[in-house]
Design goal:
The structure is a homodimer of 236-residue chains.
Chain A: H1 5-16, E1 24-25, H2 28-34, H3 39-51, E2 55-58, E3 62-65, E4 69-73, H4 81-87, E5 92-102, H5 106-111, E6 120-129, E7 132-142, H6 149-152, H7 159-165, E8 170-181, H8 184-189, E9 197-207, E10 213-221, E11 226-233
Parallel strand pairs in A: 4-11
Antiparallel strand pairs in A: 1-3, 2-3, 5-6, 6-7, 7-10, 8-9, 9-10
Helix pairs in contact in A: 1-3, 2-3
The structure holds a DNA duplex (19 and 19 nucleotides).
Chain lengths: 236, 236
DNA sequence: GAGTGGTCTAGACCACTAC
DNA sequence: TAGTGGTCTAGACCACTCC
């Protein structure tokens, strides 16, 4: 039987499940030597594993077992990134990249039901899971909703936690998830090469089930980190 | 400036949007001649477009502009494949591949709340959009629920339409969507090469909001056909 | 400096499709 | 039979990371 790159990939895939997330995977050169195939064939096998989101490849560094976290989105789940990741056994962290008052894009203005002249506080944050870059989120909040919020988020604090501490009760009003080609500037910040498909979500949260609208968030999430699972209705 | 395969792909991508779905795209050989690059580089560009689901490649035949259909899944949408596709401007069709009485797998038995000894009618169907293979669905119904159903579905009839004609009012109770590596036997039936990620959905439908459970369906959907968009809550 | 993954070349054979 | 995409080889240079 001929050893194709698919067979190589399947063989590696079964051995990977016994390795710890983040641990090193055999390199292209090693693999080509071990199985007496060309480097391109060995490379094709590792790329196949990357397409299945089983490994993460870093130029100049190596190939590593992917750390995957189930990101379950359902009506009964809290609208918090950190809580959702922690529930799946991952260690989340957030870094505030930018914070400024801006005129919101039309879709955001409509979603938050703001007047045409209203401005918003826009927060840009990068999320990590177990120290690995994982998500890029942009949040718009009505300006004046929480003047002290930007200061409070300087550390690694959770936006949902801060809103709760301020006396709000954030709840999901609307949520959408799809897979889209990642925009160039997002790809750079998430250290993604090329233009692959990435999870793209948009959410609107309000104060309690019927109170005022609190914030709207757009997120791009690396699919080699998040196994997104969206559920409607109640589990059987 | 060096012409990389990414630049080639971007250039092709912008010209593709002016072409009709299903129309032929430049071949690997033509592309390599036109831009004076090796065939492997031209090939990499076309593979990049395939990863973005902009084209569909068929061995021995050629590369074609993908026919993409938005498949919106939301609480207010009817649980019907054909209705959902038609709403997005696609022409759906269904072919019954297999129909038989079987003991259901545990997850299905639990979902439909059946007794351990209960049997089900299992329908396997292949769905197409504009004549192109698009989905593989397996449906389990309590045996005896609708004795004439299998006969009625011999043609291209809609399961939801038939259930409605039989006096039922099918409604979504629960629905889950995620992306998974396609199993080998599904890949063969959907004419998918390799083991890429494919939409994987499971749904449970009942008679009206509170009536008896009607059916449970597992589906695998080609992502180069369906732009799946999942929504929770009501649109802003 | 050694090793890594990313890109590219110029060939080759294959299975398959369409005519 | 000609053309297509799928696989594979044996090289090469590059940018990058790690030590």
């Amino acid at each position: 039987m001929t050893v194709t790159y698919q067979a190589l990939a399947d063989e590696l895939a079964t051995s990977l499940i016994r390795q710890d997330p983040g641990s090193r995977v055999v390199s292209e050169n090693e693999l080509s030597r071990l199985h007496a195939v060309s480097r391109l064939t060995a490379r094709a096998a590792l790329q196949e594993l990357e397409r299945r989101h089983l490994v993460r490849r870093v130029r100049g560094s190596g190939t590593f077992v992917a750390r995957r976290v189930e990101y379950r989105i359902a009506a009964d789940m809290p609208p918090s990134f950190q809580a959702t990741v922690r529930r799946s056994g991952g260690m989340p962290s957030m870094r505030l990249v930018d914070s400024r008052a801006v005129a919101p894009p039309p879709a955001i203005r409509t979603g938050l039901k703001l007047s045409p002249a209203a401005k918003t506080l826009r927060l840009t944050r990068l999320g990590s899971v177990d120290g690995l870059l994982a998500s890029h989120t942009t949040t718009w909040l009505p300006l004046g909703l929480a003047p002290t919020l930007a200061d409070r988020l300087g550390g690694a604090a959770s936006l949902m936690q801060e809103l709760t501490d301020l006396g709000f009760d954030p709840r999901r009003r609307w949520y959408r998830a799809e897979m889209d080609v990642v925009p160039v500037h997002i790809a750079e910040e998430l250290e993604i090469e090329g233009r692959p498909l990435v999870w793209h979500t948009t959410g609107l949260n309000g104060d309690g089930p019927n109170g005022r609208l609190l914030e709207m968030t757009e997120a791009w999430m690396r699919p080699d980190v998040f196994q997104v699972r969206l559920e409607l209705g109640s589990a059987p």
